[in-house]
Structures are given as structure tokens and as C-alpha cells.
Write a structure and sequence with these properties.
Elements lengths: L1 H29 L5 E5 L8 E4 L5 E4 L7 H10 L4 E6 L5 H4 L2 H7 L1 E7 L5 H6 L1 H11 L4 E3 L5 E4 L2 E7 L15 E6 L2 E5 L5 H9 L8 E3 L11 H7 L3 E4 L12 H9 L3 E4 H4 L2 E5 L5 E5 L2
Parallel strand pairs: 3-4, 4-5, 5-6, 10-11, 11-12, 12-13
Antiparallel strand pairs: 1-2, 1-14, 2-3, 7-8, 8-9, 9-10, 14-15
């Protein structure tokens, strides 16, 4: 009788543990996977793009200007971002790197990247570039990115497809880092301030630049977004980061017309505020805007 009782107790215990294991496996199999989120932050004049991987790790591409950089740091904190795996600057113009000073004070940054373009002449004229050189390029975590480099953040692939190093051009915009962000079947092309000079060379390289979403180059300026370049990308969605009523007249009506002719829906930070692309595990995506 005693042996039978012990056997039954063991059997019940085994069955219960087996049930728990099966339950955990079932729950994990059907647990909702967090989406990838790409935030195009409204910084007025400039660019700043937050990429939140499904596991919560984050990267920031550009940091707005000397004023709006504070808004970027606050935006990160409001969205629960205390750490950045990567802080990437597409090129060293102040409407892209100006927010560096706020970001590095308010957010923990693990690695910092840019295109490595020489700043010596600019440092002679603007203190901000000297500060950038000291804060970023003399940082132990700093590294230069070039075409062919790539890295992963929780399954989200970052591929640098432009520029080559050493540079072909001396122009800062033409040497902007161009980044293809890939997750499952979804692709988003971040083109910095790339102009037609760089676009033409990138097209000659034969690299596949087709993407679902395009961050339009140089804020929609006429010196970027050539017909051939846009056709090769064939985006469904185009996003333009631009300040309201800017004196340069960005985005150009010509560029907006080209995008519409391709059937690309246009979102603008001056009209829509912060723009968030939400990408599900299946690769399907949706857009949320502030207004």
C-alpha cells in the first residue's frame, strides 16, 4: 500500500510538471512579439530617426540641430529609451549632429559612428564642430562607417551602402551615410542628405536599393531624389523631415511630384509631426502620426 501511494504521488508530480512545461511552451509560442518601431522625430530643421528593435534595444540616426537636440533626448526618455546601442551620424552638418551635446549628456550611448569626413576647416570657423570633434571623434566608442559595413540589433539589420572610403567627393551631403534597415521582408532606406552626385554613383554600383519606405534625401531639396534613384527604390511610403515654412522652400514641388508619380504616399514632419512606422513580425507595417 505504501509503495503504491508513493508511486501515485510521483506520477501526479510528473504529470503536473509535464502540464506546466506544455503550458509554458504553448504560451511562448503564441505570445505576441513586440514590433520594430522606426520613429521619424519632428526636429524642425534637420533629421533624427529612432529605431526601436523588438527587444527594446535602440539606435538613433542623426540627432537634430543645436536646439531641437534637446527635444530628441526628451523624446527618447518619454519612450523609455535610457540607452542607445548605436548613435549614428549620416554626415557632419549641424542640422544632423547639433543634438549630440544633449544626447551624450542625457542618454547612455554605447557606440558612436559617423562617416569620418574631415572637419578641420569647419572647426576653424565654428566652435560647435570643435566640440563635436572632442565629444564624438575622441570618444573611445567612436568608429567610422563606410559602404559594406553592417550590424544587427535583435534581428534588425543595418547595412551601410554608401559612401565608399576614401571618398569620391569632397561635398559633405554627397558623402552622407546611406543606411538600409531590414527586418523580415521589410526594408527602409535612410538616405541622409545624399544628393544626385552620390545617387548616381550608388546606382552605378548595382546595389539593390528597393525599399518599402524611403526617408527622402536632403529634406526634399531639388539637388537630390533624381528620377532614376527614386525609380530604383520604388517606395510605397516616402517621409520628408523638414521644418515648417522654411526659407529654402523644402520640399521642392518637383520632388513631391516625382514621388506622387511613382505612387508613393508622402508624409512630412512639418505637417504630420512625429511619424512612427510599426513593423510586425510578419514584415507587414503601419504608420502612426502625431497629427
Amino acid at each position: 500500500m505504501g509503495n503504491n501511494f508513493i508511486f501515485v504521488r510521483k506520477l501526479i508530480k510528473i504529470c503536473f510538471l509535464s502540464f506546466l512545461i506544455c503550458l509554458l511552451l504553448f504560451v511562448s509560442a503564441f505570445a505576441e512579439t513586440r514590433p520594430l518601431k522606426i520613429h521619424f522625430i519632428d526636429v524642425g530643421e534637420g533629421d533624427s530617426i529612432l529605431i526601436e528593435a523588438p527587444n527594446g534595444e535602440a539606435a538613433l540616426v542623426d540627432a537634430g540641430n543645436l536646439i531641437s537636440g534637446f527635444w530628441v533626448a526628451e523624446y527618447l526618455k518619454e519612450n523609455g529609451i535610457q540607452d542607445l546601442e548605436y548613435l549614428i551620424f549620416t554626415h557632419p552638418h549641424l542640422d544632423h549632429i547639433g543634438g549630440t551635446f544633449f544626447i551624450l549628456q542625457m542618454i547612455n550611448v554605447k557606440k558612436i559612428y559617423d562617416n569620418g569626413q574631415d572637419l578641420s576647416q569647419l572647426m576653424e570657423s565654428f566652435d560647435a564642430y570643435r566640440w563635436y570633434e572632442e565629444l564624438v571623434r575622441e570618444n573611445d566608442n567612436y568608429q567610422v562607417l563606410k559602404s559594406g559595413d553592417k550590424f544587427l540589433v535583435d534581428g534588425v539589420k543595418f547595412r551601410i551602402i554608401w559612401p565608399p572610403y576614401p571618398f569620391i567627393f569632397s561635398d559633405f551631403n554627397a558623402n552622407s551615410l546611406v543606411i538600409m534597415v531590414e527586418y523580415k521582408k521589410f526594408r527602409c532606406l535612410l538616405s541622409g542628405d545624399l544628393t544626385e552626385l552620390g545617387e548616381n554613383e550608388l546606382l552605378k554600383s548595382g546595389i539593390d536599393i528597393k525599399a518599402d519606405i524611403l526617408k527622402v534625401g536632403h529634406h526634399g531639396s531639388r539637388d537630390a531624389s533624381s528620377k532614376g534613384f527614386l525609380k530604383a527604390i520604388s517606395p510605397d511610403i516616402s517621409i520628408i523631415s523638414v521644418n515648417k515654412d522654411n526659407i529654402r522652400g523644402y520640399p521642392s514641388k518637383e520632388i513631391s511630384g516625382r514621388l506622387k508619380d511613382l505612387g508613393a504616399k508622402i508624409y512630412r514632419t512639418d505637417l504630420n509631426g512625429n511619424i512612427i512606422v510599426i513593423v510586425e513580425d510578419s514584415g507587414r507595417y503601419s504608420i502612426e502620426t502625431e497629427r
